[in-house]
Amino acid sequence: MDANSHTTASQQVRLRIDLAYDGTDFHGWARQKPQHDGRELRTVQGVVEDNLSLVLRAPLQLTVAGRTDAGVHAAGQVCHVDVPAESLQQRSIDGEPHKLVRRLSRLLPDDIRINAVAFAPAGFDARFSALRRHYEYRVSAHPGGVLPTRARDTAAWAAPVDFTAMQDAADALVGFHDFAAFCKAKPNATTVRDLQVFRWVDVSSASEPSTYLAHVVADAFCWSMVRSLVGTCLQVGAGKREVDFAAALLGEASRSSKIQVAPANGLSLVRVDYPADAELAARASETRQRRSL
């Protein structure tokens, strides 16, 4: 594809980057201000930006589909970056951005992998053009804890759970609601979301008894929402709360202290859905509008 068709008046080319990472040793996705001693916390955004800027010899900033918290993983994260067209030409990448996959793989640490790099279609915005995000949460309720080889991506829940009760609690939360009780407050941000799927699957095996996987899909998620949803179901499943506890939380106007937030290490962003290319710009415009019930 001709890179010139992606070049704006300021000679910027937008690239879409698909990537995966093990979030265990990162302080989340988002780059943070340096500490008092001048050190910069290790973040996914910081590591990828620094190495991409090194390859293309230009200061770059990534925009991501969803800012994962510290310890949260991703198998299907998406971001975009606007790159000076001349940087691609000088680095002999013009017209073939997929070459960046191999170049970055030589520089990035083992806990980040670039899955693909391509020219972004017109109107594409990794964050605002997204239709929905797919998360999975993996948890073990075995009294002996998590299988050692899965300790980085499976959370431990120190109590047996009633699978049916967990699913009943999840079913009560599906729909278009104000999830204020499940979200950490963020100034001037709406907590109205469309929770489209919340399904539990028993993935127990001989080596991993009492292991469960939650599929959670929504148009967007606010800060800490997925882990709060999962934690609510686990509380109900363990008999710490009644089944109607989940539905009752939807009536609250602020974050609830009654919710036990599930550990970060069980959570992974596995996919981000986008509309057809012709609808990307319209979707981004729609998403930017503040929602209400």
User: How many beta strands in the DSSP annotation?
Assistant: 10
With helices defined by DSSP (H or I, 4 residues minimum), what is the helix count?
Answer: 7
Radius of gyration: 20 Å
- Could you tell me the mean pLDDT? 93
Reported for the largest beta sheet, the result is: 10 strands, mixed
Secondary-structure element pattern, one letter each: EHEEHHEEEHEEEHHEH
Q: Could you estimate the helical fraction of the residues in percent?
A: 10-25%
Please report which band the strand proportion falls in: under 5%, 5-15%, 15-25%, 25-35%, 35-45% or over 45%: 25-35%
Q: Distance between the terminal alpha carbons, to the nearest Å?
A: 43 Å
Low-confidence stretches: 1-5
**Overall geometric form:** globular
Alpha-beta classification? alpha+beta
Labels describing this entry:
alpha+beta, globular, disordered N terminus, 22% helix, 293 residues
Question: What would you say this structure looks like, in words?
Answer:
- The chain is an alpha+beta fold and 293 residues long.
- Helix content is 22%, strand content 25%.
- The chain contains 7 helices and 10 strands.
- It has helices spanning 44-56, 85-90, 99-105, 163-173, 225-237, 245-249, 280-287; strands spanning 12-21, 62-64, 73-84, 112-119, 132-140, 155-156, 175-178, 192-202, 211-218, 267-273.
- Strands 1, 2, 3, 4, 5, 6, 7, 8, 9 and 10 form a 10-stranded mixed β-sheet that branches.
- Helix 4 (163-173) packs across helix 5.
- The longest helix is centred in the N-terminal third of the chain and has 13 residues, at 44-56.
- The protein is globular, with a radius of gyration of 20 Å.
